[in-house]
Amino acid sequence: MTEYYESYTTVFALLAAGILLVAVAFTASRLVRPDRSYGGKLSTYECGIDPVGQGWSQTHIRYYLFAFLFVIFDVETLFIFPWAVVLGEAGELQPFMLGVMLVFLFFVTLTLPYEYKKGVLKWA
Amino acid sequence: MADLPLLTLLIAVPAAVAVLVAAMPRHAVGPIRSVSLVGSLVTLGIAVAIVAAFEVGQPGFQLEEQAAWIPQWGISYRLGVDGISLLLVGLTAFFMPLVVLAAWHQQERAKGFFVSLMAMGAAMLGVFLALDLILFYVLFEAMLVPMYALIGIWGGKQRRYAAIKFFLYTLIGGLLMLVAILYLYWSAGAQGFDYDLLRGLDLTGTEQLWLFLAFFAAFGIKVPIFPFHTWLPDAHTEAPTVGSVILAAVLLKIGGYGFLRFSLPYFPEATLTLAPWMLALGVIGVLYGALVAMVQRDIKRLIAYSSVSHLGFVVLGAFALNQTGAAGSVVQMVNHGLSTGALFLLVGFLYDRTHDRAIASYSGIMRATPVFGGLFLVTAMSSLALPGLNGFTGEFPILLGTFEALPLAGVLATLGVILAAIYLLWAYQRMFHGPVEGRAVGLTDLTPREVGVVAPIVVLMLVIGVYPGPLYERVNPTVEALVDEVVAVAEDADLATLRHLTGDAGADAELVIDPPADDEVAVDDEEVSR
Amino acid sequence: MDVDQATQIDLFALAPELAVLGASLLVLLIELFLHGPRKRFVNPIAVLGVLVAFGFVVALWLDGAQRSSFGQMFVVDDYALAFKGFFLAVALFVLLISYRYFSEIRTFQGEYYFLMLAAFLGMMLMPSARDLVMLFIALELVSVPGFIMAGLRKFDLRSNEGAMKFFLFGVLSAAVLLFGLSIVYGFTGTTTLEGVAASLSAGEANPLLLAATLFVIAGFGFKVSAVPFHFWAPDTYEGAPIPVTAFLAVASKAAGFAGLLQVTFVAFEPLADVWAPVLGVVAILTMTLGNLTALTQTNMVRLLAYSSVAHAGYVLVPFAVVQPGDAALNADAFSAVLVYLFAYGAMNIGAFAVVIAVARRHPGRRVSDYAGLGQRSPGLAVALTTFLVSLGGIPPLVGFVAKLAVFFVAVEAGTTLGIVLAAAVAINTVISLVYYLRVARVVWMEEAPEPEPEPVQPGLALGFTVGGLAVVTVALFVLAPLLWGAADQAVLIASG
């Protein structure tokens, strides 16, 4: 059991090192940089234009939809990658694995015509 | 004839009529009440057949029927009739056609009314016949909904309050009983819920005490015994005439029936321990009911409290633990059903005409409507136990039995009889004598239908009053066996209490047969001398 | 787990699930090509799918053999089939009561039926799952569509609020559940239920392990809306479309209980000493709080919501009397839970069906809207009274059989806790009847407001549901042996 916990020492050491690194970097820059502050520096940077309106802003729903679609298909590749790596060594399990992946892809693909019919893929 | 499953038919006929009426169109009031009347007359016919088939002199159950219902748990469908239930079944069946006739002119939502009546009938008859405890419980609770509807839909001003009070009181008692029933079931080795199977279990004193109290919750509320009686005046007063009649004539009897059927034989030791308390509660009920009845201004409420008083006698008889008292208690249940049922019917007829129940609103009814006055007088006399009418034949043995058990209780209970005479006669005098005044002016006398409803009851009062023998013939063997059983257990358990209670010489004889250790005898003697 | 075994697929064993899955996809796609009012025709497709799945369940039952797929991840036995049959029956009725409601709202019909079928797919997986991972997947498959369905009335703020609460509570409890499951896996080294049981009875109790079992139970406690995890229920029930409320109150809850049954009676059976008293306390709290809060409700849906919380308390009672190693008692407790759930399903969906019918005329769903219903629509009124009285446990209705089953095991245990629980159920039954009868009183004993509203017309599908379930509620009382027998057949307890 102790051994099990010891393997975590690395993690904690890494964590400590990370915190230390950030802390040292910020403290050092604080010490060496000049400090001349005025109001304009605190305002939101919008490509050099004066900021307009509130901090809240609405984003059109289609951005979210696209983000979702992207995540879904991105995660899909993440899922397929390890599968592809072990497929070659699967031996007689290969047909089973192929079948399972095809079922998965079938469900993911099924969403495309649904999205198309619902008009999600149209931008305007 | 003998092959017919009479007991099942007795329950099935009113149940089937209820379903049939429910299927009839709402506005066909005429056919609805005709079907109900025919159904209840058929039920009465079956009851008569059962009485005829009943073998007098047998203590045990007769005409038994049995079938498995939920075999996994040993729940069966078992019916049977013995001396105690025979009388109550007869009483119930006797009242059914009368009740239908009394409600003949029910126009408002007549269909639901007659469905409820018939459903009540089936459930009530079933309760007296059921010999499986779960079946008994099911029927015991199944009565609640139709009775709730009867009071709540067709009742008086405070009907909703009265209906829910009635429902919840009965329900909570019933549920405690259910838990006790299940406890008995597991104590008996989980074989089933048959009445005989759960009888004579080897329970410790504490267990018996708790179980007795749980059953007492159900039956004590139903009777009702003194501190649990408050639902009764409300329910009685607010219920429609027919509802009050059913309540008085049959429903309250389930409590007394339950004591004799379950509490006594199931928990003999607890019965013995608690008998003095029960007698005390009975006496309190008798006196309290009578005293409160005396000051009522509402005639229906007066009769309701008189019920509390009369049912106190039933409790006294049951817990006097001798044959005289117990048999008297069964007969008293029948008599109370007849006399109080008739009183409620008569008050209902009066209320139909004037819509006024206040005693002070009437004067000189006797002169205005002699037939009504005469019938009321006979019924009141029966209710106050005038010798020669039926009330006497039940109360007298009860008083004898109570004297035998606990003289003081007997004396006090006798006082209750006197009080009954006072409150009934006083009310009678105020309402029926004197000059014709108030609502009595222009009062019309009873119609032939109304006379026809009350007349059979009055005839029965006279017959029982003069010749109660047939009732006792049927009750005595059963009650004798019951009391013997309790007393036998009692002798084993606690000689001192028994002798103290019954003053029975038999207990001394038992001493010789089974002599306890010397020091125990000494203690016993000491307790007796106290 | 043996890899070869895990790749074995018994398609026949999976057939009911596949039928539901196919129907759900079909519904989703077909709706795209239907326009306007014709969109409502997806309902019959869903119904057809459910009927086909039911046919497969019957075929599997006639077949009788115990089947499994993916190793022991997916098992089809009497227990699983009993629950699947129950769930499909519930699905059928939920679809029937949805038809009119959703064709009148006219929103998201395809999505609704798809989500509903997906949730029922999760439910059907639940009783077959004999593995902690599978159990979790099934539970989530029930929960996630529920989150969305609860918010389908998106024009209504209460619906949004209810869905949000449901979602937040749901993900939190899922996290807690998963955390508990991972600890259990860490200690026992296996995820199969039987493996966990074997490992637990061999090893000694560790505080962390006990905590983990409680985490798992808390996770399911959310699903069955047991106090103190019930806060989402009334708001969600009130805001959701009423058919969804019926679904949440009956199906989703029953699925939670199915999972809880498997986890407690099989996997954690050796630790019953620890969790049974906890569940006993939870049961008492749940029924009492549910009933007391229901007393003051004026909204019919909220009243039924709190009543369903209270009923969860009654169902928890048999759990609380479980004793490690006492197979006879545990089997009785198990079948009591099943009896209660089956009975509860029939009467509660019936009650919601009546509410849907009345809500067409009175969208406010107040209890006072029911005044004079006995005069206007006697059929519906009789049915509603039947359901409510049955929920109250009065004979001769199936609710009494259910209560009896619970009383039975509570007293059978013979422990103080058992007697206390029996007494608590008795007292709560009385409290609950106060509000059930209050509704009955409004229905029968109060006059309809002037001008008198028109009679409620439930329509064919709703009418069939209400009538059918009323008959079931009465018939299952007389046929109690059948119900009880089926439950006894389906008992699944740790063999040890």
Distance between the termini of chain B: 58 Å
Strand content of chain B: under 5%
The structural class of chain C is: mainly alpha
Helix residue percentage of chain B: over 70%
Q: Which chain pair shows the most residues in contact?
A: B-C, 36 and 31 residues
Estimate the mean pLDDT confidence of chain C.
88
What are the SSEs and their pairings?
The complex is a heterotrimer of chains A (124), B (530) and C (496).
Chain A: H1 2-32, H2 39-42, H3 61-87, H4 94-118
Chain B: H1 6-23, H2 29-53, E1 62-70, E2 75-81, H3 83-102, H4 110-129, H5 133-142, H6 144-154, H7 159-187, H8 205-222, H9 231-238, H10 241-251, H11 253-266, H12 268-294, H13 299-319, H14 323-354, E3 362-363, H15 365-368, H16 370-383, H17 390-405, H18 407-432, E4 437-438, H19 448-466, H20 469-493, H21 495-502, H22 506-513, H23 518-529
Antiparallel strand pairs in B: 1-2, 3-4
Helix pairs in contact in B: 1-2, 1-4, 2-3, 2-4, 3-4, 3-10, 3-14, 3-19, 3-20, 4-5, 4-6, 5-7, 6-7, 7-8, 7-9, 8-11, 8-12, 9-10, 9-13, 10-14, 11-13, 11-14, 12-13, 12-18, 12-20, 13-14, 13-17, 13-18, 14-16, 14-17, 14-19, 14-20, 16-18, 16-19, 17-18, 17-19, 21-23
Chain C: H1 3-6, H2 11-32, H3 42-63, E1 67-69, E2 74-76, H4 78-105, H5 109-128, H6 132-150, H7 157-188, H8 193-202, H9 207-223, H10 232-239, H11 242-267, H12 272-295, H13 300-320, H14 327-359, H15 373-376, H16 378-391, H17 398-413, H18 416-445, H19 459-478, H20 480-489
Antiparallel strand pairs in C: 1-2
Helix pairs in contact in C: 2-3, 2-5, 3-4, 3-5, 4-5, 4-11, 4-14, 4-19, 5-6, 5-11, 6-7, 6-11, 7-9, 7-10, 8-11, 9-11, 10-11, 10-13, 11-13, 11-14, 12-13, 12-18, 13-14, 13-17, 13-18, 14-16, 14-17, 14-19, 14-20, 16-18, 16-19, 17-18, 17-19, 19-20
Please give a structural write-up.
- The complex is a heterotrimer of chains A (124), B (530) and C (496).
- Chain A is mainly alpha-helical.
- Chain A has a single domain, classed as Methane Monooxygenase Hydroxylase, Chain G, domain 1, CATH 1.20.58.
- Chain A has 4 helices and no strands.
- Chain A has helices at residues 2-32, 39-42, 61-87, 94-118.
- The longest helix of chain A is centred in the N-terminal third of the chain and has 31 residues, at 2-32.
- The relative contact order of chain A is 0.05.
- The model of chain A has no long low-confidence stretch (mean pLDDT 83).
- Among the domains of chain B are: 268-480, no CATH class; 494-530, no CATH class.
- Helices cover 75% and strands 4% of the residues of chain B.
- Chain B contains 23 helices and 4 strands.
- In chain B, the strands form 2 sheets. A two-stranded antiparallel ribbon of chain B has the order 1-2. A two-stranded antiparallel ribbon of chain B has the order 3-4.
- In chain B, a hairpin with a 4-residue loop joins strand 1 and strand 2 (75-81).
- In chain B, helix 14 packs antiparallel against helix 19.
- Chain B is globular, with a radius of gyration of 23 Å.
- In chain C, helix 12 packs antiparallel against helix 13 and helix 14 (327-359) packs antiparallel against helix 17.
- Chain C contains 20 helices and 2 strands.
- Chain C has helices at residues 3-6, 11-32, 42-63, 78-105, 109-128, 132-150, 157-188, 193-202, 207-223, 232-239, 242-267, 272-295, 300-320, 327-359, 373-376, 378-391, 398-413, 416-445, 459-478, 480-489; strands at residues 67-69, 74-76.
- Chain C has a two-stranded antiparallel sheet.
- Chain C has one domain.
- With 496 residues, chain C is mostly helical.
- Chain B binds chain C through residues 26, 69-73, 112, 134, 137-139, 141-142, 144-145, 148-149, 152-153, 159-160, 163-164, 167-168, 171-172, 175-176, 178-179, 182-183, 185-186, 190, and chain C through 374, 378, 389, 394-396, 400, 404, 407-408, 411-412, 414, 419, 422-423, 426-427, 429-430, 433-434, 437, 441, 444-445, 480-481, 484-485, 488.
